[in-house]
């Protein structure tokens, strides 16, 4: 039965295609068009006014009869009022007729003045005034009815978006002097009074009313604008509480120029579980593909106060991670949050090598492994100037073996950080923007830590696009640990500095680079272990060229390292890349090549596959 259906469909489709081909050929047999004397926009406009070629004898007669009137209308719409048309019809007894049109458009009509007069409250609206100043129509231009109608439509659309619901044109006219070939454009628009935003009501939500009111990003009595409506929709969406959101301005129910806003929402499911499968490419020491499995459980709304939780469990070879975060909204669900975190994880750092006397070189035998337990409390606040301010208190206990000595230090870190991200647009591939981050953490034995430590970090990233297709991406990471020399071994690997990886120095694996220690193992082997440093300085410069809007090529230079007072070894890597700007963000394939060997790494090359926005 299934095969028969396909066969019948195939026959029907072939029959339809045959009919269409026959019809098309038949239509072309009735008339051909030959236009002379005009080109460019005039030619295109004339053909558009003439319409499709006839497909019957009756249509052909009407097409030829109306041709001159249609051409005159096409010329008039572009400012040519003295056009002349010579028509010649070649009508053989057999075969296709030919309509030959020789057109002399004549002198164009020049705009003598443009008078756009605004009355009402719109006259003081800066957005409308900016639009008015951006208009390119000027005296001396050739009259174009299409541009005139476009300006009229834009003004009405902008007025409605800005809350001038009673606006209307008092006068809108083009006065043409055909003898002088001049035109005067007059637009007189009276906006009336601008409407204001009235009460905002919510339906379908189960959250505390004070919390919902705090999400309104404007004041009641604010001037109405679609931008305000969109910002409210965006705030509600960003909370993660709702699956469906409708923000409805009830203009028809306005009273005394106040527009009530009705918001209809549907809560998200109480729980959601996501399973993610992936692989880490380019960040393993042995240049292998490292599989990853991630399970995430989210509860977007635990109670009417908007509290939520997210728990993730991630597995990778020898790198299991567990992290749960409980979020409590304070003065604002998005801009002021208290986060309580609990985590258990294992990670690897640097590289461990044993000297082979036969080959007279060090060979990799593993990495510095650390098991960490953490609990922390963080308050995040978004300030009015878009700076993100965080205060934190975090407890860490980390177990690791360094130089065959077991360490198990405890740290209580008091931290503060500030960061700011600026984008030229909200896309996943912004044309320009920058990011800056500053943080400081402090630990003291009298406050529960094993040793005294002051940790300072700063990060920068800058993006700009020149001449549409040329894009520059730069970044700089700096870090310093202030601690006594005898306490360095007690600073856990997660608080030290390492370099390498797709977000550091490409061509090297993740956290592969840094200062090392040489020691003799219990078995008598000479061993070298990368243990990280007190300082970090890594920078990058990348040039990108857009081949198409969704594909670009890149070339980059990464340089720097993690280092210590007695070990300063700058590393440089270069390489090309190709990037696809996908609907879910840029997917980048980069080839990094180190320019020199180090004491712990032969001259490397490495492929890095990454995904996500650069800001």
Overview of this structure, please?
- By secondary structure, this protein is an alpha+beta fold.
- Helix content is 17%, strand content 48%.
- It is built from seven helices and 28 strands.
- The protein has a 19-stranded antiparallel sheet that branches. Strands 1-3-2 form a three-stranded mixed sheet, with helices on one face.
- The longest helix is centred in the N-terminal third of the chain and has 27 residues.
Concise overview:
17% of the residues lie in helices and 48% in strands.
Features:
disordered N terminus; 615 residues; three-stranded mixed β-sheet; 28 strands; single chain; 19-stranded antiparallel β-sheet; alpha+beta; 7 helices
Question: Layout of helices and strands, plus pairs?
Answer:
Elements: H1 2-28, E1 31-36, H2 40-50, H3 57-77, E2 84-90, E3 97-104, E4 110-119, H4 126-134, H5 145-161, E5 168-177, E6 182-190, E7 196-203, H6 209-214, H7 226-239, E8 242-249, E9 258-267, E10 272-280, E11 290-299, E12 308-315, E13 321-332, E14 336-356, E15 361-382, E16 388-402, E17 405-407, E18 410-423, E19 433-443, E20 453-466, E21 470-482, E22 516-520, E23 526-530, E24 535-548, E25 551-563, E26 571-582, E27 585-594, E28 605-611
Parallel strand pairs: 1-3, 4-6, 7-9
Antiparallel strand pairs: 2-3, 5-6, 8-9, 10-11, 11-12, 12-13, 13-14, 14-15, 14-23, 15-16, 16-17, 16-18, 18-19, 19-20, 20-21, 21-24, 22-23, 24-25, 25-26, 26-27, 27-28
Helix pairs in contact: 2-3
